[in-house]
Design goal:
The protein has 163 residues and is an alpha+beta fold. Helices cover 52% and strands 23% of the residues.
Length: 163
């Protein structure tokens, strides 16, 4: 009888705990679902923020002209060598003054050695485009010997200084 009484007692105790355990498990499951939902929402918000940031960066970049544009000319150097010229030649000085004042030309410098003057510049334009900007009265003082995209070789022509 004692065994039957103990069994009945523990049976009743076990039944009393079952609803409590089930309730706790349900609460844990509910909290887990809430945490999962919060994590999903946070993840979605982060993805959206990243995408919006990428678009904003592209927009800001386009406002400031960052990045290479299709067909854009690359900035480079052009060297103009003038042979058979004196250092203080007026034609050479006019050519240098004009070339260094052309829009987009930067860092113009002139060097002289052994009868050859060398004008070096930084420009987006190629040598031919720069030569086309030189006024005819300045250009006539020179004879074009050789030209490629980034260099010109000139010689002095036999003409008088035009005013």
């Amino acid at each position: 009888m004692l065994i039957l009484g103990c069994f009945a007692f523990f049976s009743v105790q076990g039944q009393d705990n079952k609803p409590k355990v089930i309730k706790e498990v349900d609460q844990v499951n509910k909290k887990t679902e809430e945490v999962n939902e919060t994590s999903k929402n946070t993840n979605d918000a982060i993805k959206s923020t990243v995408e919006n940031s990428k678009e904003t960066i592209k927009t800001i970049g386009s406002l400031f002209g960052s990045g290479k544009k299709k067909g854009a000319k690359s900035k480079g150097g052009v060297v103009i060598d003038v042979q058979q010229v004196a250092y203080d030649d007026e034609h050479l000085n006019r050519l240098y003054a004009h070339i260094s004042s052309v829009k987009g030309v930067k860092k113009a410098s002139k060097n002289f050695s052994g009868g050859t003057a060398s004008i070096s510049i930084s420009s987006k334009e190629n040598a031919d485009a720069l030569w086309q900007t030189v006024p005819e009265n300045v250009r006539n003082a020179f004879k074009m010997v050789e030209m490629n995209d980034r260099s010109m070789l000139l010689q002095m022509a036999d003409i008088k200084l035009e005013e």
